[in-house]
Amino acid sequence: MGLYDINHWVMVNIFNNEPNIAWLFLPAGVRLILIMVFEEKSLIGLFLGSLTTGLIFNGLNQSLGLITLISMIATLAPYLAYRIVKHFNARLSDDLGQLNLDTIASLALGVALMSTLSHHLVFRLNEGIFGEQKLSSVMTFFAGDLIGTLLILVLVFTAFKLWHRHTQAV
Q1: How far, CA to CA in Å, does 101 sit from each of 36, 104, 108, 137?
Q2: What domain range is 45 assigned to?
Q3: What is the Cα–Cα distance from 116 to 137, expressed in whole angstroms?
Q4: Alpha carbon distance 164, 12 (integer Å)
Q5: pTM of the complete model beyond 0.85
Q6: How many structural domains are present in the chain?
Q7: pLDDT, tens digit, 9 for 90 and up, residues 96-139
Q8: On the chain, which terminus has fewer CB atoms closer than 10 Å, C or N?
Q9: What is the Cα–Cα distance from 156 to 160, expressed in whole angstroms?
Q10: Euclidean distance between CA atoms 44 and 2, whole angstroms
Q11: What is the DSSP-derived secondary structure letter of residue 13?
Q12: DSSP letters of 32-53?
């Protein structure tokens, strides 16, 4: 049994959450890193990747229109969060090595809020498909995006710092 299966079983059977909601969602952080590096150029690739994933995992259970809408949200939510944080934080540069913990926290919180609110708005409007939205599902979704984004950003930040230290020592 894989980690995905274990997480799915725990979320659905113990916490009574909706399927496909996780306490740790690393793709949220990966999306943000790609947006920070490539900005608008990353949007088409992120959308196509999200759409493909949605079709593979949910294609038989959801309409193409709904999968497309959720894929658009998954692409645009981190982009909008990044643009908002960048607007209010003039020190945020394209150099990932210049990230600090305040900026990492702001970006992760922005992505988690934007993603959770926009996804659950769609889920709420489609209750017939997703069932009753429980507060625990919303909080788990938020926590998964927040923890996943924080983890990826801290790993990338640390890697850049170590690489920079290594190149200066050589």
Answers
A1: 16, 5, 10, 28
A2: 3-169
A3: 10
A4: 43
A5: no
A6: 1
A7: 667 888 889 999 999 999 999 998 888 777 765 555 556 777 88
A8: C
A9: 6
A10: 30
A11: I
A12: HHHHHHHGGGGHHHHHHHHHHH
